[in-house]
Model the fold of this input.
Amino acid sequence: MTDQTEESTIDNRTFRDKHSFLLFITISILISCFVVFVSMTLYNGSGAAQLDLSRPGYVSVRSQAVTNDGDFKDYPSTGGISKDVINDFISLYTKQAQKVKAVDAFGGSPLDPDGLGIGALPSVTNR
Amino acid sequence: MKISKVRILIFFAFAAVLCGLPLMKVSAQDNPITDQQIQRIKDNCLSTKSTLNQLHASDGLLRVNRGQIYESMSTMLMDGFNHRLSNNKLDNNNLVAITNSYDSTLDVFRSNYKTYEEHLSSAIGIDCLKQPVSFFDALSVASADRTRVHDVIIKLNQYVDQYQAAVSQFEKDYQGSSAGTNN
Done:
């Protein structure tokens, strides 16, 4: 009698009961794939990818990244205002402004086809 | 609900014009390059790719380093001084307006650089031996994007100058009002 009952119990097990571990693994992989997809979308969409110098193409320049510019002091938003305070700010600001303008960033035409040796490149606006 | 034939004709004419506009734009972009140029692209494919990879890396570094400086100008200096004036109940409207314009332009810089980097990466990804024309076109787009990034940098520098001039003006006004109060 007991054997018959056990047998019927085994027969009644569903697919989920039989392969619960396999299902668990499969669902876990699917969830992790989804999470990776979401995070990669955010990584690429937010512009973080462009700042990530740990990517393979940036190995040669990685060490040149400025991690802490000690020159930049957080200007205190509290305190009084006087002629000296304003002058101090002006001298601090002027120093940093010179640093900003010191480099003609993204200037020049390194993508000029003549420079690259692949012929005359018409500008897109003229095309 | 009878629609006259004239109206139908006008509708189709209007639709044809609308459909034709993008086609005209596409045809305007299709600038055929000469066979000589194609051969040159193929011949210099490896060296061009190498140069582009170097540029990609150096521009990435430039983006990180310059981006930090531009960001610091706003968050560490302009915002701090603006808040200080505000806390002292002094008129800082002009300075705040310039800071807001600067911040908006900084957003444009981030967005433009992102577009440029994506286009340059896709140009680097194109096989210039098999697809020289696509490679050339992708390069043209990346070049135009780079120019746009440079234009934004010029604007940012102008705002930096404007803010400096506005602070100098504020100093003069402050001195004038202080002298007036003392008298």
Q: What stands out?
A: Chain B touches chain A through 74 residues (CB under 8 Å). Chain B has one domain: 34-182.
